[in-house]
Design goal:
Length: 247
């Protein structure tokens, strides 16, 4: 059997790998942590409806989302795991496997919280919650987050928590990390500088990565990617983080 080499995979022709997955215990832990954070946020902001949300569950959240101001309730800062959750995840087999591949690494603190940022994303059916095609490098170029004072490279991790393979998940443009000539510009949207992709999407061979719950996509910082329109009748939930890997 060929030995897994994530560095080779993400720097190779595709720019990503789907070879890693959470074990069932880790997937349950993440689902429980997300549910607890999701419910607590709703408990604070929509206490009159918390019993309905509790019974309905996060995968059916879209059926009750009209009861809250979705955009106001779920900024990224409300979806970053507490320090204790990240510490528990760090001790599990998934992160130990990442260490065996990349050596000792940090996870970026892009929000300036003072601890490593692992956060979750909630995408309702339809196309209202998805992120456009972009490269993570562009966000860093626009000043999001600070790099450490030692030489390192960034590696992105996206993990499916609740997904319907073939109906929602992550879009990628294989091999796009090998070019520095993609056209884009930055715009300030809602007070935050964001990259805007200036190429025609219909001219690009963009793929939906079919991911089962617990499956991870490990990819290059320059790989073009974005959220797929959620064609399922349930919410898509995923988690994301950026590794800072020493050279």
């Amino acid at each position: 059997m060929e030995t897994l080499d994530l560095r080779k995979a993400i720097n190779g022709g595709l720019g990503y790998s789907t070879a890693m997955s959470l074990d069932p215990t880790e997937l349950k832990l993440l689902r429980d942590c997300i549910r607890a954070q999701w419910l607590y946020r709703l408990q604070l902001l929509a206490p009159k409806h918390i019993h309905e949300f509790d019974l309905t569950g996060i995968d059916q959240y879209h059926k009750l989302a009209h009861l809250v101001d979705h955009a106001a309730v779920w900024p990224k800062t409300a979806r970053v795991f507490p320090r204790e959750v990240v510490a528990a995840l760090r001790k599990g087999p998934f992160f130990k496997a990442l260490e065996s591949q990349f050596g000792v690494f940090e996870i970026s603190d892009e929000e300036g919280f003072g601890w490593e940022n692992v956060y979750w994303r909630l995408v309702r059916p339809g196309n209202s919650d998805i992120g456009p095609i972009h490269s993570d490098k562009w966000f860093w170029d626009l000043g999001h987050g600070q790099m450490p004072d030692y030489p390192c490279e960034r590696v992105k991790i996206w993990i499916a928590i609740y997904t319907a393979p073939g109906k929602n998940g992550l879009l990628v443009l294989p091999g796009s990390h090998l070019s520095d000539h993609w056209k884009w510009h930055g715009e300030v949207i809602n007070g935050l500088a964001k990259p805007i992709f200036d190429e025609k999407l219909e001219d690009l061979d963009i793929h939906l990565v079919e991911t089962h719950p617990g499956q991870a996509v490990v990819f290059h910082d320059k790989l073009l990617h974005g959220g797929a329109v959620n064609m399922a009748d349930t919410c898509r939930v995923s988690i994301e983080l950026t590794l800072l890997v020493r050279h």
